[in-house]
User: Fold this.
Amino acid sequence: MGWTFYDANGNRMQIAGDHTLASHLGTLAVTAGGTGATSLNNLIALTTHTTGNYVSSLANATNGGTTITNGATEGGAATIKISLDDLATGTIETGDAVVFNDDNGSDVAKKITIDSFFETGPKLVTEDAVAVATDYFLFLDGGATGDVNKESIADFATALAGSGITATNGVLSAAAGVGLGMVIALGG
Assistant:
């Protein structure tokens, strides 16, 4: 058996006998239809020899909170870690939103506006008996800040006490003959 072929310059070459082509040519150049290499390992360079989308690397976010490891390792398993401690601080305002895990079986992260959170959140809290001496309630400060503050029930009762009204351990009492100017409507 023999081989007849032409090299890249058009020269006719002939090999007689049972031989492999590679044993006579060595590495076949790309211009001659070969790879130009002796191995197929790492011959394709993305963006140079391919088209389409691929991920070149994953990088840490510049706004803090996110750390990515193994993002540019071939065959590596990228790990994304979110740390709330590393996030930038801000002031929450009407219209802002927070992320929560929807516990409806879908395990999908969703967002809720702060307005909606404060409107619907409190009615989801479990009811409990009031402990006058140790419990607190929240109130909106009507001063310049408008901040939400807390006050103990006992202290609030003391603040309400005044002429003819006393507060003891969070309980208001009216002195005999003192009109409170209150109307209590009982109905069914």
